[in-house]
Amino acid sequence: MRKTVIAAVLACAMVAPLTACGMDGAGSAAQKIMDSVVAGDAKAVAAQSVMTQQFYEKVNYLNVKPAKPVEQVEVGNSQKVGDDVRSVAVSYVVDGKKQDVDLIMRKEDGNQWKAVNPVLFRMVSAVDATLKGAATTSDAKYAMVPGVYDVQTKGSWYEGSWKETITADSNFGKSMGTGLATFGHMNALKATDAITTDQDIQQDLANEISNLSMCQTLKELYLNGQDFALVVGKSIANACRYDVSEVNSTITEYSAKPDSDGDFNITFDAQVTGDVAEFKDGGESDDEWTCQSVSGAGNPTQCARFVPEQYEVKGLQAKCDINNNCRFVDVESTLTAFADVIYAGHGTD
Asked: What span is annotated as the signal peptide, if there is one (predicted)?
């Protein structure tokens, strides 16, 4: 008889290591639910539950293996709280933190014990990231069970991965839940070589170059602040032209990791097609040339006209975020770099 008891105990430990031997039906059902939680199978947990919450949309219960499942699962004895209703105390550890929950088990048709609205789910929205190992897409919502999961993201020129801790939400069905997003995980991202040819980056750099305030820079840097140098209609705006028709940027360097603001630093050369000032000494104003007396020995005259030309400005520096918004690191030095090319040879000294 003693050998039979020992054999039975060993068989119980070998066959069902996560199931407490000697449990009643409610306790055993609670243990099976927690086995599904360990596996990351929210779909199986839902199948073993009675969900009475009202949802605005269909809930997609996700089955995905956790990178680190819940640990130290303990399922207590069931306590009667009513006819065919039991309460089972459960505890477990997720990402190093102990969690306690009482599962209300109810006997359903077919004498199956199921958990009523168990606090074992959290709604997760895939904002701009997805779960590794699951057929998930961005802009979708899923119900998940507790655990630590691998999350990944990939843009047109960046990629990254991190671990996300999912805990049970006591307001499941009412709260927004958790969003899987790169925000808050910027240090997990890295740029790839695709940044050097990305068309959205190219377009935003072109826009930034086209919007430079070059005429004000001409006045400040090359006309000593005078409004009447190279004048048409006594207005510096009429005398200056900054029309950019085409920009091609060659990114020569980029930072693999973002800075503390989440921006990636780039260095690039800009090949620009647009109006450039062409100068000559002496002459008179006409429909093509604008001439102005400038300071110097003999009261010299300088004339200029603006002609379309292709030019290059090297060593420009900008910051770009993952939404392809770029801005110059130092606008003033950028303006000076362009002015040195566009207005080369012009000045009042």
From this structure: 1-22
Contacts of 122 (CB under 8 A, 6+ apart): 143, 144, 145, 146, 166, 167, 168, 169, 172, 177, 178
Q: Is the pLDDT of residue 77 over 60?
A: yes
Position with higher pLDDT, 53 vs 296: 53
Burial track 121-157 (b if 16+ CB lie within 10 A, e otherwise): bbbbebebbbbeebebeeeebbbbbbbbbbbbbebeb
DSSP helix/strand/coil, 194? helix
Q: How far, in Å, CA of 169 to CA of 144, rounded?
A: 10
| Residue pointed to by tokens 């054999």 | 7
Q: Alpha-carbon distance 194 to 172, whole Å? A: 40
In this structure, the number of other CB atoms found within 10 A of the CB of residue 340 comes to 12
Phi-psi map region of 96: left, alpha, beta (phi>0 left; psi -120 to 50 alpha): left
Cβ proximity of 247 and 210 under 8 Å: yes
Cβ of 312: how many Cβ atoms within 10 Å? 11
Residues 275, 279, 284: CA angle, nearest 5 degrees: 115
**pLDDT, tens digit (0-9, with 9 covering 90-100), for 153-172:** 999 999 999 999 999 999 99
**For residues 103-111, average pLDDT:** 91
Residue 185 falls in which region: left (phi positive, over 0), alpha (psi -120 to 50) or beta: alpha
Higher-pLDDT residue of 141 and 220 is: 141
Give every CB contact of residue 332 below 8 A, 6+ residues apart in sequence: none
The structure tokens listed for 190 are 């890295």
CA atoms lying within 13 Å on the CB side of residue 212: 29
From 231, 222, 66, select the one nearest 147 (Cα to Cα): 66
Between the CA atoms of 17, 21, 23 and 27, what dihedral angle is there, to the nearest 10 degrees? 0
Sorted by sequence, the CB contacts under 8 Å of residue 329 that are 6+ apart come out as 265, 317, 318, 319
Show Cβ contacts of residue 254 under 8 Å, excluding neighbours closer than 6 positions. 191, 195, 196, 264, 265, 266, 267
pLDDT at residue 337 is higher than 60: yes
